[in-house]
Amino acid sequence: MPFLTTAAFVLLFTGTVIYAVIVYNGLVRLQNEIARAWANIDVLLKQRHDEVPNLVASVKGYMDHERQTLEAVTEARAASMNAASIPQKAQADVLMTGALRSFFAVSERYPQLKADQNFLALQSRISELEERIADRREFFNDDVNTYNTRIAQLPEVFMARLMKLQPRQMFRVNEQERQPVEVKPLLARGQGTA
Known about the structure:
Elements: H1 2-59, H2 67-82, H3 86-107, H4 111-115, H5 117-152, H6 156-162, H7 175-178, H8 183-191
Helix pairs in contact: 1-2, 1-5, 2-3
C-alpha cells in the first residue's frame, strides 16, 4: 500500500511539473510572438518614415503655401523617430497616419503634382506601407489578445503571476483618428493662396 501511495504521488507530481512546463513554454511563446509582431510593425514604420523626406522634397515646389500641412508631416516623422516605447510609437504612428491623410487630401488640388511620376511613386509606396502596417497591427492585436486572455485564465493565471506577467496594451486609435479627414476646409484654405 505505501508503494502505491508513493507511486501515485510521484505520478501526480510529475504530471503537475510537465503541465507547468507546458504552460510556461506557451506563455513564453506568446511573449515572443508579440515581440515579433511589434518588430514587424516597427520595420514598416521605419520604412514609412524613411520615405517621408522624399515625399516632402518632391512636393515643396508645388505646395509652398501649404506649409502647415508639410510641417505636420515633418513633425509627425520626428515624433515617430523619437518614440522609444511601444505606446509612444503607437501614438506617433497615429499622428503620422493622420498627417499623411491630410497631406494626400491637400495634394489632390494640385493637378501638376498628381501628374508628377516621382510623387505618384512615393504616394503609392507610402499607401502600400500604410496597408501593410494596418495588417501587422491586426496581427499584433491578435497576439496581444491571446496573451492577455491566457494570463487571465485558470490555471495559467498562477504561472503568469509567478512569471510576473502583466497585460499588454493593444494597438488602438484615438478619437481624433476615427474622424474622417475633412477635405473641403483644407482645400478652401489653400484656394485663397493659389
